[in-house]
TrEMBL record:
<keyword id="KW-0808">Transferase</keyword>
<dbReference type="InterPro" id="IPR050396">
    <property type="entry name" value="Glycosyltr_51/Transpeptidase"/>
</dbReference>
<dbReference type="InterPro" id="IPR001264">
    <property type="entry name" value="Glyco_trans_51"/>
</dbReference>
<feature type="region of interest" description="Disordered">
    <location>
        <begin position="716"/>
        <end position="761"/>
    </location>
</feature>
<keyword id="KW-0328">Glycosyltransferase</keyword>
<dbReference type="InterPro" id="IPR012338">
    <property type="entry name" value="Beta-lactam/transpept-like"/>
</dbReference>
<keyword id="KW-0378">Hydrolase</keyword>
<dbReference type="Pfam" id="PF00912">
    <property type="entry name" value="Transgly"/>
</dbReference>
<protein>
    <submittedName>
        <fullName>Membrane peptidoglycan carboxypeptidase</fullName>
    </submittedName>
</protein>
<keyword id="KW-0645">Protease</keyword>
<feature type="domain" description="Glycosyl transferase family 51">
    <location>
        <begin position="80"/>
        <end position="265"/>
    </location>
</feature>
<dbReference type="InterPro" id="IPR001460">
    <property type="entry name" value="PCN-bd_Tpept"/>
</dbReference>
<keyword id="KW-0511">Multifunctional enzyme</keyword>
<keyword id="KW-0121">Carboxypeptidase</keyword>
<feature type="compositionally biased region" description="Pro residues">
    <location>
        <begin position="724"/>
        <end position="753"/>
    </location>
</feature>
<dbReference type="GO" id="GO:0004180">
    <property type="term" value="F:carboxypeptidase activity"/>
</dbReference>
<feature type="domain" description="Penicillin-binding protein transpeptidase">
    <location>
        <begin position="370"/>
        <end position="643"/>
    </location>
</feature>
Length: 761
């Protein structure tokens, strides 16, 4: 069968130039001929071999979900905290695209789209003639071929091989032929509608807007379904050369191209003359709505977002290498539902903003942070700080997250500060060890003893502990309290409520320090910078000289509220990829510890009085949650020279750490000593944990705690409160009503004598 003459080839000169082109790329010429006539009509070994080579090319292309936008969501599943992406793309269905854009893109890019089988031979011959006869280089790629090309690039980028992608003139004839073969195969596998949808969702519309939905939102502030005729024509024109027809940078080029698209639509009878004329007369009017990305753009939770991001990137469940995990995060179109409570976060951030006025931040550069954990689940419900997120360090701005450790347990960076000393918020753990040893909270303890010299022998069955409080030789001064009226005998309970250093030391002197260490390990306490368990090699660690981050402190107190069961803090509830597949998420891995429910109850019982008893170190805070919250307990903390100040407290449903102080961790810098300093118009002779950190804690918990578990704390055993009573005579059995223990312990004696003044360092 003879080859039908094509009217495009009408001169010997043109044919000669075409043969010259075929001489450069025989295989490409064979492809054109092979598409026009059956292979059996061709002869010659070169042609046959070329067709065989074409037949042996891959005929299948994996069409994966294109790169998408990862959204980090609050726990309500609707509040977007931040978006992350390499390519701003929001895939939509074909029926979510305006008919205007579907018609416009077909008109300008591939008017025979619905007629060809993936490769437009007429277009190829037209392009060849234009290129070699007229010197006018033209493309001949169909929408299907363009879709194939974009898919190949996407697949390379997904595999971390984006540098291997070839664009435009970089492609060889073999590359083009391979794309043609794949386009033919794609047309056999997918419908025209599927191909058009895939193309419009993958193609670049300039300014990092990929896909028609993102482009419509970026340039016009509308959804793809609502694009008008002139708007659609603008966007259809962009894809030919995104930089040259960029509507923002090149508005005249974009307008000219739009009018060309409208002319093609008129020629193809897709629109009427009146529609054409009206659209051409319409000025190019943009409503640019740039899509922000990155945690720093989050208006409500930038530092929590950063913690989620780093938690993801540190987890090998999401890829074998850091690069693999980053590609999934920034290309995978994930929906990451976090544990953050949007309402609690808003209130927490508001309280942090109030800790320092803008003028004070610029003048004094003090940091503050607040973080909440839900007992029993480990879910982080709020995480806020007063500094703004920035890679440039300056007063009031930082890249450090004040709430979290510097590294995770595997040593991977979390970008936390992790250098704030915790002060007297450590004392409840010594008190818990006292109760764990079977001692009563109302046992009298000698708080007059102040000398614990280097020769003092501490009991420590798993290490060594030393102290140097004597005021003689190389020892430091005698162990101090906050007030001269505190050096006396009082109960262990009163010592904790009033935050008396000498009482805490006197308790520890009667204990195996190893058990204090085990209590802190059970509650998850580790240093904020190196994440090592507390050593208690120095007795001053009883008073909180260790640096621990607020998240770890809040979670440790949550362990008491959870009856001694420890849960790892978690920030992610679920992750769904672009195909709807659920990815694994970290577990809170809740487990019982050596902290018994009775010891947890006793510690909470004492910490309630920190807030409620006269002279309690937290009584100035006066936290009064809603009527539905039965109990709240906690502890204040203030370090030397008030550089770091704290309140950590919990209800049954919410544990919160509030910190205000030195945002550098450099304890030798006298600039950060908070004595006789003025904050928010008030001068503090000595800043106490109950003041700024306490006010933020109280206001926040009063507003938020009622939204979580409001159950009362379990009552501690009576013997833990009052001690073991002397043996009672045997009870005479009653045939009618057997005796039973009381449901609640008897009331404890007052936690006095109360401490005067504020907390101790």
């Amino acid at each position: 069968m003879a080859v039908r003459k094509n009217p495009i080839i009408n001169t010997a000169t043109t044919l000669g130039k075409l043969i010259g082109f075929l001489g450069v790329s025989v295989l490409c010429g064979v492809l054109v001929a092979g598409l026009l006539v059956p292979a059996t009509a061709l002869s010659g070994s070169t042609v046959s071999n070329s067709i065989n080579a074409f037949d042996n090319l891959p005929a299948q292309l994996d069409v994966n979900t294109p790169q998408g936008v990862t959204n980090i969501m609050a726990s309500d599943g609707t509040t977007v905290l931040a978006s992350l992406y390499n390519q701003n793309r929001v895939p939509v269905e074909l029926d979510q695209m305006s008919p205007n854009i579907k018609n416009a893109i077909v008109a300008i890019e591939d008017s025979r789209f619905y007629e060809h089988g993936g490769v437009d031979t007429t277009g190829i011959l037209r392009a060849i003639v234009a290129t070699f006869a007229k010197g006018d280089r033209q493309g001949a790629s169909t929408i299907t071929q363009q879709y194939v090309n974009n898919t190949i690039i996407q697949n390379l980028e997904a595999a971390g091989k984006g540098d291997q992608a070839k664009l435009g003139a970089q492609k060889t004839a073999g590359d083009k032929i391979r794309e043609m073969k794949l386009a033919i195969a794609m047309e056999k596998q997918y419908s025209k509608e599927d191909i058009l949808k895939g193309y419009l969702n993958i193609v670049n519309f300039a300014n990092n807007a990929y896909g028609i939905q993102s482009a419509a939102q970026l340039y016009f502030g509308v959804n793809a379904a609502d694009l008008s005729l002139p708007q659609a024509a603008v966007l259809a024109g962009v894809v030919n050369s995104p930089s040259y027809f960029d509507p923002i940078a090149q508005p005249q080029n974009a307008t000219d191209r739009r009018n060309l698209v409208l002319g093609r639509m008129l020629d193809l009878k897709m629109i009427t003359q009146a529609q054409h004329d009206e659209a051409v007369a319409t000025p190019l009017t943009l409503n640019v709505q740039p899509r922000t990305q990155g945690c720093a753009t989050s208006s409500t939770a930038p530092f929590f977002c950063d913690y989620v991001l780093r938690t993801f990137l540190n987890n090998p469940d999401y890829g074998a290498t850091a690069d693999d995990r980053a590609r999934l995060l920034y290309q995978g179109g994930l929906t990451i539902k976090t544990t953050l409570d949007a309402g609690a976060q808003t209130i927490a951030q508001d309280q942090q903003n109030k800790t320092s006025s803008p003028e004070d931040i610029q003048r004094l550069n003090r940091g503050s942070a607040m973080v909440s954990v839900e007992p029993g689940t480990g879910k982080i419900r709020a995480m806020a700080q007063n500094f703004k997120m920035s890679d440039v360090a300056a007063n009031g701005q930082t890249s450090y997250n004040f709430s979290v450790p510097a590294v995770d347990l595997q040593g991977n960076p979390l970008n936390g500060l992790g250098k704030m000393q915790v002060g007297s918020t450590m004392k409840p753990f010594v008190f818990a060890a006292w109760l764990q040893a079977g001692k009563s909270m109302n046992t009298l303890v000698n708080g007059a003893k102040r000398d614990y010299p280097s020769s003092f022998r501490w009991t420590n069955s798993c290490g060594t502990t030393s102290s140097n409080y004597s005021g003689t030789g190389t020892d430091t001064p005698l162990l101090p309290n906050d007030s001269n009226g505190d050096y006396n005998t009082r109960t262990a309970l009163a010592g904790l409520v009033g935050s008396i250093n000498t009482i805490t030391f006197a308790e520890a002197a009667q204990l195996d320090i190893c058990n204090i260490k085990k209590i802190t390990e059970a509650a998850g306490l580790r240093t904020g910078d190196t994440r090592q368990p507390l050593s208690f090699e120095q007795a001053s660690q009883f008073l909180g000289i260790d640096s621990i981050d607020p998240l770890t402190m809040a979670n440790a107190y949550a362990t008491f509220a959870n009856k001694g069961t420890y849960c790892s803090p978690i920030a992610i509830e679920s992750i769904t990829d672009g195909t709807g597949k659920q990815l694994p998420v970290p577990s809170a891995d809740c487990k019982s510890t050596i902290i018994t429910p009775e010891v947890a109850a006793g510690t909470l019982y004492a910490m309630q009085q920190v807030f409620t008893a006269p002279g309690g170190s937290g009584s100035a805070i006066n936290p009064r949650p809603s009527q539905n919250v039965a109990n709240m307990g906690g502890k204040t903390g203030t370090t030397d020279f008030s550089q770091d100040t704290w309140v950590v407290g919990t209800t049954s449903g919410l544990a919160t750490a509030s910190w205000f102080g030195n945002p550098t961790g450099n304890t030798t810098d006298v600039f950060y000593q908070n004595q006789n300093k003025t904050f928010n118009g008030r001068t503090y002779p000595r800043l106490d944990g109950a003041y700024i950190a306490g006010t933020a804690f109280s206001s926040y918990m009063n507003a938020v705690a009622g939204n979580f578990n409001t159950a009362p704390f379990p009552a501690p055993p009576a013997r833990m409160v009052n001690g073991n009573p002397p043996p009672a005579p045997p009870a005479q059995p009653s045939p009618s009503s057997p005796s039973s223990p009381p449901a609640t312990p008897p009331a404890a004696p007052p936690a006095s004598p109360p401490a005067s003044g504020g907390t101790n360092p």
